[in-house]
Specification:
single chain, 15% helix, PsdUridine_synth_RsuA/RluB/E/F, isomerase, Pseudouridine synthase, TruA/RsuA/RluB/E/F_N, EC 5.4.99.-
Length: 225
């Protein structure tokens, strides 16, 4: 029994299939994903929402398992997350209806910096911090140089549930600024130097920060702010 091969017309039709990912559309061309950025919208129509995401909330508006999503906190239409924040991480998530801004904040070649506050197990040495700054070898390659420094414990909202700390092992806080966005990168970097991350908060994306935004709340940015 033989199986009919797809016609050249069908191949061409499939190679041009578009995938809608929020305000950015991607198109598969010759088995490669090409990002198609929608034209910039008028400043008067642009929406930027800064959300302080709580722990255990998904960065999407729907979920078949009835877990908490953005829809439980944000009732603004036609905005999409610029990048993601893991379910077990907290802090700044930016949503917008502007594809150009989404691309600026998420495209790897743009190298938009992001700052995270990480509570880690133990107290990293100067040598360990230097490793993070210079780059560490993960399974998906060497990380780019980062800005890493010790910080005092920041004043934060209580996490629910609380972080499980081991009584005989101290914890400390690091500020980590990256210009790339690999999956669970901060957690993997600190684990690599022997100091697992216990709590992770994203404080800054580019020029936008969490300042003045309570956990579970959002702020709408207008031009000029």
């Amino acid at each position: 029994m033989t199986t009919a091969k797809p016609s050249n017309t069908a191949k061409r039709r499939n190679s041009g299939r578009s995938y809608n990912r929020g305000a950015i559309t991607t198109k598969k061309v010759n088995n490669a994903i090409k990002r198609e950025i929608k034209p910039a919208i008028a400043a008067s129509e642009r929406k930027i929402v800064l959300f302080n995401k709580p722990f255990d909330v998904l960065c999407q508006f729907t979920d078949e398992a009835n877990r908490q999503t953005l829809a439980d906190f944000i009732a603004i239409k036609d905005v999409y997350a610029a990048g993601r924040l893991d379910r077990d991480s907290e802090g700044l998530l930016l949503l917008t209806n502007c594809g150009k801004l989404q691309n600026t904040l998420t495209a790897p070649n743009k190298k938009t910096s992001k700052t995270y506050w990480a509570q880690v197990e133990g107290e990293p040495t100067d040598a360990a911090i230097k490793q993070l700054c210079q780059g560490v070898e993960l399974k998906d390659g060497l990380t780019l140089p980062a800005i890493v420094k010790r910080i005092d414990e920041p004043t934060l909202w209580p996490r629910n549930p609380p972080v499980r700390e081991r009584k005989n092992i101290p914890t400390s806080w690091l500020s980590i600024t990256l210009t790339e966005g690999r999956n669970r990168q901060v957690r993997r970097m600190t684990a690599h130097i022997g100091h697992p991350t216990l709590r992770l908060i994203r404080y800054r994306i580019g020029d936008y920060t969490l300042k003045g935004i309570d956990n579970g709340h959002f702020k709408v940015i207008t031009d000029g702010q």
